[in-house]
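[Discussion] Sanity-checking designs against the backbone

I'm trying to build intuition for which residues belong where. Below is a structure token string of 227 positions. I'd appreciate it if someone posts a full sequence so I can compare it with mine line by line.
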């Protein structure tokens, strides 16, 4: 039995990974395809079972998923069994789906797609920074979004909040302790609330020289990496 969310059937990626917000709202994470899709000879319809109604942000995912399901070529046999073609030729191609997803991400924050560079640090740090800014680090919340079964998505260090990329690198009290000391060392006073992106841009004080800013950015990147 193919899983609607966790088998690779409609696209090369699992639907749980393509539509993480919806997947979180799914009541039965391992529902079969036939439990989530109603196929008729004229059209297909998604038959969702959500823990609560999708919010505004989630409804964009819902539109995309409906679009995918409606345009997917199923073959109906015996009234209630559906077969699918892995290399389907429906209107909705993988390319069009990835375009939709890319557009959605770009719509959210195009700045995250720029690569930040700093030649004072090794390449692997630049890659780490790129992944962190796009929330592609293996923290509990991200693993959970990608359909990995976990006992808890809370931060294992402080247990105060969900372990997101922002939490583990900035807001966790363990991270805050480190940042307070680093800011103190550079004489910036204590750190104000900021985002991962601001952190990695590492602008520093406006009076600093270009080299000073670059060194400060390198210090921030190394600290974040070590955290
Ligand atoms: Zn924490």
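Best answer:
Here's mine. Compare freely.
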């Amino acid at each position: 039995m193919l899983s609607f969310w966790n088998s690779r059937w409609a696209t090369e990626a699992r639907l749980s990974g393509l539509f993480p917000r919806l997947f979180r709202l799914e009541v039965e994470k391992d529902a079969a395809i036939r439990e989530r899709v109603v196929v008729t000879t004229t059209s297909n319809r998604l038959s969702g079972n959500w823990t609560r109604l999708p919010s505004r942000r989630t409804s964009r995912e819902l539109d995309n998923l409906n679009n995918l399901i409606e345009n997917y070529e199923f073959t109906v046999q015996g009234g209630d069994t559906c077969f699918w073609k892995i290399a389907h030729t429906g209107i909705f191609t993988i390319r069009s789906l990835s375009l939709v997803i890319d557009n959605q991400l770009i719509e959210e924050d195009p700045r995250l797609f720029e690569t930040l560079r700093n030649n004072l640090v090794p390449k692997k740090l630049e890659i780490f920074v790129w992944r962190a800014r796009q929330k592609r680090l293996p923290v509990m919340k991200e693993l959970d979004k990608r359909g990995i079964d976990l006992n808890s998505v809370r931060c294992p260090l402080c247990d105060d909040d969900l372990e997101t990329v922002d939490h583990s690198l900035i807001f966790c009290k363990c991270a805050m302790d480190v940042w307070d000391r680093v800011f103190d060392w550079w004489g910036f006073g204590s750190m104000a609330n900021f985002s991962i992106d601001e952190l990695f841009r590492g602008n520093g004080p406006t009076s600093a020289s270009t080299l000073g800013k670059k060194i400060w950015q390198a210090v921030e990147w190394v600290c974040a990496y070590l955290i």
